[in-house]
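Exam revision sheet. Question 4 asks you to relate a sequence to its structure. Input first:
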Amino acid sequence: MTKRADLEAALAGERLAARAARARRFEAVEGGGAGNWLRRALTAPGIYLPYVLSAKLGLARLYASPVKLFWGRRVRIPLADYDVLILSMYGGLYGSETPFTRFLIRTLGPGDVFYDIGANLGFYTYLALELAREVHAFEPVPSLAATIAANARLGESLTVNAAALSDASGTATFYTGRSTMVGTLDSAVAERLREAGKSAGAITVPLLTLDEYVATHTPPTVLKIDAEGAEGRIIDGGRTLLSAHAPTIAMEVWGKGNQWELSMHAVEKLRALGYRSYRLDEAGEPQPVAGDLSALLVPGGGENFLFKKS
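Answer key, structure tokens:
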């Protein structure tokens, strides 16, 4: 079997279905108390108990837990919070992320160069390394960038950039969240996180632009942008690249009630550059869509949309 066939089989396999069912059972246990703690421990003892020691007792910075991704690759990830726990339990990102996972498996090939912008824990970076010629990860949180670099295998063509992409190079304040999955350059998004009790603090991070970066690196054929409200800035910093090379773009769009205006502002920037928008169906196939993409989503939710030039 080819690598693509192996990945498709793993994504559709019974083992992953069983892991997903376990993750759903775990998430269904709500609230505190000894009874619910025991239910969680019995559902996933091999993951939940290390999580309690790592996250609850503050040991996550000292210990990275072994995690087996759904296709069998083994990585080590600090079990710092609940979102990382679910990733570890499932072996990937599921729910609204599954169609994009299918799309990457069916699309990336040996000639592709993949840019993972807002790489976070590196799930899409690791997946792309199975298929693409080169992978470039951009993650401004130093500990997360270090985790991705530490999980690289000898001989893999991976470049990890501990920096944020924006519309100008330099430095900026990056607002971190209580969840590993959340962080932003946008002060308005940071204020929403603070009001919701989800803010953790702020750090100073280096900034790059796409146009500057590709002047000394291979341009992408496919790129993923998940920057929690800073997508428009990234597009502005890559206008020359997007005009000259027209890479396929996957970008997260937010639903109404979730500062969706930022998402649609970024969408309109891409459309002005000649890109058309597509929504991925459950099979990971792009279906043309137009107009207000945020209106297609559950209020407060988010989803990866695809953007391609004709």
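Marking note for examiners. The CA atoms of residues 267 and 303 lie 13 Å apart.
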